[in-house]
Amino acid sequence: MNQDTKTGNASPLGAHVRDGGVNFSLYSRHATRVELLFFEHDDDSAPSRVVELHPVDNRTYHYWHVFVAGVHAGQMYGYRIHGPYEPEIGLRFDPTKLLLDPYGKCVAFPKNYSRHLAESHGENLESALKSVVVDPDLYDWEGDQPLRHSATQTIIYELHVKGFTSNPNSEVDESRRGTYLGLIEKIPYLQALGITAVELLPVFQFDPQDAPPGKSNYWGYAPISFFAPHHSYRSRQSPLAAVDEFRDMVKAFHQAGIEVVLDVVFNHTAEGNEHGPTLCFRGIDNPVYYMLDAGEHYANYTGCGNTLNANNSVVRRMIVDSLKYWVKEMHVDGFRFDLASILSRDSDGTLMPSPPVLWDIESDPDLAGTKLLAEAWDAAGLYQVGSFVGDYWCEWNGKFRDDVRDFFRGQPGAVRRISDRIVGSPQIYAYKGREVEQSVNFVTCHDGFTLNDLVSYNNKHNELNGENNQDGSNDNRSWNCGVEGPTDDPDIESLRNRQVKNFHVITLLALGMPMLTMGDEVRRTQHGNNNAYCQDNELSWFDWDDVHRHEDIYRFVSLLCRRRVQRMTQHKGNRVSLIQLLSDVHWAWHGVKVDQPDWGFDSHCIALQGHLLPDGLSFHLILNGFWEPRTFELPPLKGDRWNRWIDTALETPNDIVPWESAVPVMDDHYRLESRSVVLLTSEGIPA
Of 282, 482, 609, 677, which has the fewest Cβ atoms less than 10 A away? Predict the structure, then answer.
């Protein structure tokens, strides 16, 4: 062993700066030989140095490790790993491929990176991805810490880092468009809207070439590193800039009082199936990292070619270590887990009643207080909304999305379902002391129609994706209001505006944790494309002209958000069960006549009266999903009259007024226009 190398330590995994050098540690159970390669530039065709890890001196159990003196942050490196190539039993070692460190904190992306060369046999050093040594202690956080907002005070805004500022009309400097730093410039917009948490589409380093020919992977659901921030969202060229600028962004959001939640993908990687590239995990220890079907083939519960073996002890630890790194070193406030139900499967794909990885995440003290949001289903039909394991996990409530869409498109049988969703979905969550905010309420997300397109298209229009419009969901539950796509008809445009406001009212006022999607507050359109994962262009980007074009909707949503974060002050900071909260509210359901709700299959109208005992506030929410106006009796009050806060059928600024300026209602009846929502308030009490 050379004078500047030592045996090193098995722990911690990855590359860690210490004692005048760097300790490297890697897990590979089946490897027979491991080489550590150093590079001076990301496109070098040959390493500047090769360190051989001796199978006795540099190996403890299945951990290969070495300490190299003189190495510091910014050093590029990778591994060559030798071992048997026996696909029939799952082993796919290929020493011609340079491999990323699974615990690498940064990735250098050469301009001539080639996914194709990583798929074929032969050397690919010049076009291969390289890991980069990071020293987290070099960054000054200036006292910043994760915010830990109460769930009751949380409004999530799902956005794409690049898409939010890439459009030239964003007025962001060209050098910062589509970057972490560019996002900082738009924080005032989000503050004015009333957002308290941003949920960023994947920022783990992903493979943009994991897409159809001629397209790029825009969304980022193709991870190749669970520790490194995506390189192309940096503004400076240094590889380490991605790490520092991500932290600059988080710090700026925190200074503005906004949390940062990451959409994380622990269900598959960009390596795909047996025909995919060898970038990292496949070449390090394939049967450890992936679920395999009969050895040679990959189990595919994700629809993306492979499935991460999440409940293997090594992979399980990597997932938890990744989350802890992003919380402790990158200061993020929470995570949304893509296809989280896959984390409930064992190595054979069988559903586990008590999945170790989920309990590890929930019970880890370093993650206590971190928001954990689960997309509680997978691509193989496992659907766990309402039954996801754990006490602390929140769930994307897919039933809320479907039932609210059904009601406002006039689907029969939707009244009972939307009524349950408005009061926190007790039919789903009122068990085991589940809390109100464990239901993440949303109508749209990145995957599917935008809110504008939900009310403008009956059918998806994904032709630009190059898959003959076969991709994307066919179950959109949308209604185009009479014309497919854009129209100059003022009546249809008025109806669409009303529908958009209806959806926002229910999302932001229903019990649960609300989530909005980038641009829905200004009717952003993708022209009917409901699967724009490969559209890195103006189709997917935020069009900032929409802020002026639909300023009435923006105003409407901002006033809703403002009231949302003001309400429920009694429970701020407390964890309150849904049953407990419902007991603090006096509820009464009505129809067009007081005390006569119509729960029939053909009903399209419902009204909910509530009196919030802790706040001394009464409200009356009326929903008319019918295609004709309806007149509703108003329940009598003691000591006050009803005041109109919201009527989505009215033109701005009367559609919603500042909370303190609610307009008195002078009658004991209220006439609702077709497909509209009204919210009345009062400090009186029910008669």
Answer: 482
pLDDT in tens, 533-592: 999 999 999 999 999 999 999 999 999 999 887 664 444 445 556 566 666 677 899 999
Judge whether 338 counts as a catalytic residue: yes
Q: Which residue has the tokens 């409901």?
A: 530
Question: Which of 338, 378, 403, 435 is labelled catalytic?
Answer: 338
List of E strands, 442-579: 513-517
At 76, phi and psi to the nearest 5?
Answer: -90, 140
Is-contact 179 161, C-beta < 8 A? yes
Residue in 279, 289, 293 with CA at minimum distance from that of residue 119:
279
Question: Tokens 């940062």 map to which residue?
Answer: 260
Q: How many CB atoms lie within 10 A of CB 488?
A: 7
- For the chain, the 3-state helix, strand and coil shares in percent, each to the nearest 5, are 25, 20, 50
In the set 101, 245, 285, 375, the catalytic residue is 375
- Which residues 6+ apart lie within 8 Å of 460 measured at CB? 449, 469, 472, 473, 474, 476, 528, 529, 530, 531
Which amino acid is present at 362?
A: E
CA distance linking residue 361 with residue 264, whole number of Å: 13
Cα–Cα distance between 209 and 201 in angstroms, integer? 17
Element (H, E) at 422: helix 415-422
- d(Cα 112, Cα 41) in Å, to the nearest integer? 12
